[in-house]
Amino acid sequence: MTAPTALVVETTAAEDCPLDFLGESADVVYFISFAHSERYGSGHPLSKAAGAIKRRLKIDLSPLLTFADANVESGEEEAALESMWQEAEPLAACARAVADAIEGGEELRELTADFPELPLRLRELAAMADWAAQRGARVRLTYVL
Predict the structure, then answer these.
(1) Tens-digit pLDDT string for the chain (145 aa)
(2) Domain limits of the chain?
(3) What is the pTM assigned to this prediction?
(4) What b/e readout covers 8-34, taking b as 16+ CB neighbours within 10 angstroms?
C-alpha cells in the first residue's frame, strides 16, 4: 500500500505548529501542480482555474507555486529544497484569496468541482501560515507522492 499524496507544511518556528489539515491535502498538491503547468498550456480544469485566478482576478499565485518534492536524491535537489523557504504572511494571504475566489465564483466552483475540499484545505494552509507569521517564522511547502 502506498502513502497518499500529501502537502507537507514546515516552519522555522521554535515549536511545532499545532494546526494540521483536517482532511487529505492531495487536492492542494494537485492544484499547485496544475497551476504550475498552466503556463505550459495544460488544459486540465485546475490549470484553467489557476489561469482565471491569476489573470482575471489578478491574484499572485507565486507563494503557492513555491514548492518542491520532499524526497531529495542529490545535493543539487537538497539545495533547491532549501531555497523553498518563504515568508509566511504572503502565503497565508494567497491561500485565503484563492479559497475565496473558488467559493465566490460559479466558473471556478465548476472547474474545481472534482476537488470539493480544495477551499477548506487552502484555508487550513492559510491558518498554518498565519500561525508561523505570528511567530516570525518562515514556511516551506513540499509534497510527497
Answers:
(1) 455 899 999 999 999 999 999 999 999 999 999 999 998 999 999 999 999 999 999 999 999 999 999 999 998 989 989 999 999 999 999 999 999 999 999 999 999 999 999 999 999 999 999 999 999 999 999 999 8
(2) 6-144
(3) 0.94
(4) ebbbebeeebeeebeeebbbbbbbbbb
